[in-house]
What we know:
The structure is a homodimer. Chain A is of the alpha/beta class. The first copy, chain A, has 3 domains: about 10-55, Orthogonal Bundle (434 Repressor (Amino-terminal Domain)), CATH 1.10.260; about 65-140 and about 290-320, Response regulator (Rossmann fold); about 160-285, Rossmann fold, CATH 3.40.50.2300. Chain A has helices at about 10-15, 20-30, 35-50, 55-60, 80-95, 105-120, 160-170, 190-200, 210-220, 225-235, 245-255, 290-305, and strands at about 65-70, 95-100, 125, 140-145, 155, 175-180, 205-210, 235-240, 265-270, 285, 320, 325. In chain A, the strands form 3 sheets. A 6-stranded mixed beta sheet of chain A has the order 7-6-8-9-10-12, with helices on both faces. Chain A is elongated. The first copy, chain A, binds a DNA duplex through helix 2 and helix 4. Chains A, B: Keywords: DNA-binding, Transcription, Transcription regulation.
Amino acid sequence: MPSARPGPNLSRIATSLGVSVATVSNALSGKGRVSESLAEKIREHASELGYVPSQAGRALRTGRSGVLGLVLPDIANPLFPKLAQAIEFAATTAGYGVLIADSRGDVAAQTEAINRLIERGVEGMVIVPRRATRISAASCPVAVIDTASTPGNTVAADHWQGGRDIATHLAELGHKRILIIGNNPESNVQNDRAGGIRSGLTGDMQSTTLWIERLERDQGNGCSLGLAEKVREGYTAFAALSDLQALRALTELQRDGIVVPDMASVTGFDDLIWSPVITPALTTAAMDMRLIAEIAIESLVRTIQATGPREGVLVTAETDRVPMQLIVRQSSGPAAPAHLTYKTENS
Amino acid sequence: MPSARPGPNLSRIATSLGVSVATVSNALSGKGRVSESLAEKIREHASELGYVPSQAGRALRTGRSGVLGLVLPDIANPLFPKLAQAIEFAATTAGYGVLIADSRGDVAAQTEAINRLIERGVEGMVIVPRRATRISAASCPVAVIDTASTPGNTVAADHWQGGRDIATHLAELGHKRILIIGNNPESNVQNDRAGGIRSGLTGDMQSTTLWIERLERDQGNGCSLGLAEKVREGYTAFAALSDLQALRALTELQRDGIVVPDMASVTGFDDLIWSPVITPALTTAAMDMRLIAEIAIESLVRTIQATGPREGVLVTAETDRVPMQLIVRQSSGPAAPAHLTYKTENS
DNA sequence: CTGAAAGCGCTTACAG
DNA sequence: CTGAAAGCGCTTACAG
């Protein structure tokens, strides 16, 4: 005997009202050709009984689970909270639930995570791939959020343009020598951002790039980045490719007696939760997570409806590149021309 | 006509092998009284066909969805990544999927989030309640992660003991005047931590508590905490109730020329992702998220199995208080007695 | 406008 | 050891 579901079901409502289940179903879904008075009575009775429709029954009948999957490369990623929140909101708005899966570690774990989601019957999924990983289509529609330069990408922030905005901002502050600080030279996102920065430098500016991962391989984890020395060499701006690196740079500079922003500027990317809170607050280029999530989910849902839930397709979106927004919180720099004024956040 | 599910089902496997669906089901689930040779043949054929069992069918029949819910007070919370990762891992290990819900904002939103999960058929859920919110039992088993002093709590880190460890550590470094920095005086977690700190001070130490939320109400967002002045007043240790506040304190001190840890110590809680990365790295008391998640999920699953999925119960655990671990990264302080040595992380 | 009936895919007593 | 059958709760053509 199947375990009883405690709550009332359609049939209970039907018999208790002396009508058929079909009519109850129609009334509740609003699709039906049911007289308004009966429909009203049914709705009332249903809510009185605390009726909650069974997803299982519905899913079995319609073939749609009403659930999407979210696969993260590494859930501990500081960007994750905003992304997950945005995805959850967009999905809920579209009437879907969100099942999470952490593809921590290697590519194998990612594949496993994807399979788990498939087994749970997701109709489609959003994947933020591991660095430089290619998604081999799963057996359901897949939306990929990465960089525009990732093949098969569905939607992404315009990291390149974000980098360009950073460079323009630094140029206006009068900086000449920029140190770009990245973590991983293999990351598509970081490369796009760095490329954008370089492309936005004016003729009299120059940049060098420091990859922390390489440095740490040589000198050990948590080693000094040697930024104070860079200041002595003439660098006045430190453009990190993520706020996490920017924070590391900022605290190291301050520890070594470099006053920010008076002696050097520090910029980041992503507008992580603490970026506005530290002193001085970080100038940063932020993704519009809400919009990105909306586009990803909307395209995903459209594809699901067009192709059916169980076909493996890489989803494409009309807009695949969402502009990044520069948030200026350090509005002066070592060489800021006095006549320039900037829009800052807290004023 | 119900929309066809593309993949093979039990019946397809059965007919193609000339056996009954019951036998296939039994063979695949391993429960059956099926001869090993037949079972092996069936398993082989199933995997050949790429058979993926239908959760919907199973759920409808058994009354269990195989899914748990995770309700977060504010998904953008910096603690969330570690928690979600730990929960996802524990749930996956227990054979469950995890549906997320963000109860951003008010209590009403929290209730709504809970209802959404119920509608999706979760068998139980883990809730991290909003500050000082009481969970009125939903119509399924609920495990609550908060403070031990929260009524109806299932499992929590021992925030009080964490605070005590921080105090002991500061005492050993020779600090006499401690400024405790919190965000919200209404938070159970923060109050437990602060209480622990105070309880761990020795007779010749004294502490004052600064609540940022109150300060900002008076002076505006992003206002200075005035910590440099506190240093001049004789405070040498700043014990923040979360790494986020610790970071704010650290950067403000550094900006104002206070060298950390030579002139003042800064400690935090939670070991957030950037805590080891900044300069100087933060001394902090960390929760064992893995263990907390494990206990929460295990107790939840046990309760589900005991009471059935659709009963509203507040889950209790055998161990409801998990010790916090002190991670010492600033091993010296302004007044550190030379003869003391500390275990530090990077050495 | 309303109802009887079929069937989505699965599991589980029960009979053989 | 294997199979026939019932039924979980729902939706949807179809008939009335």
